[in-house]
Recover the amino acids of this structure.
């Protein structure tokens, strides 16, 4: 199933549900929503539910890491991450998400209270920069992530450099 994001909030408590195949094509949409959420003066907490996620790429994981880091920095709390799928839970733990999220392995019941988050169009450059930022966030979490994503970030950053002329 193609990925989509469902969201809901009540009295400053936000719920974000990732469904299906969550890929970098949703990074601009998610990033904008997170900024809007953090600017809400009534913001209290956030729960991210991955129990209906079939696949999640590293860019999306980087945005989740950014969410947790910002929640800790701005509001001094650790968000909750729901993960009922053993394969996704294994990826989360291997990347250190259990150190920045409270991970719950029991599904939430909330279907009728959520609306789909509409996708925001973004330029190729905007998406590339968000991919770089997301992976830098993952790299900052621990040494294993730094080693895993260093070459990818270096390659993406190199795309931004003008080509060099050969010396005569």
């Amino acid at each position: 199933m193609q990925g989509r994001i469902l969201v809901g909030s009540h009295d400053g408590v936000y719920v974000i549900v990732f469904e299906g195949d969550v890929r970098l094509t949703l990074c601009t949409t998610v990033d904008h929503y997170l900024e809007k959420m953090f600017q809400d003066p009534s913001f209290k907490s956030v729960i991210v539910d991955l129990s209906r996620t079939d696949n999640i790429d590293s860019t999306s994981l980087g945005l989740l890491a950014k969410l947790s880091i910002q929640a800790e920095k701005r509001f001094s709390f650790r968000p909750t991450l729901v993960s009922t799928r053993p394969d996704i839970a294994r990826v989360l733990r291997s990347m250190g998400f259990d150190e920045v999220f409270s991970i719950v392995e029991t599904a939430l019941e909330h279907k009728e209270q959520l609306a789909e988050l509409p996708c925001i169009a973004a330029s190729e450059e905007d998406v590339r920069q968000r991919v770089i930022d997301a992976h830098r966030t993952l790299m900052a979490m621990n040494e294993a992530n730094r080693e895993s994503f260093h070459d990818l970030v270096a390659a993406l950053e190199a795309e931004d450099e003008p080509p060099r002329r050969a010396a005569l």
The helical segments are 27-39, 58-75, 86-94, 124-141, 143-158.
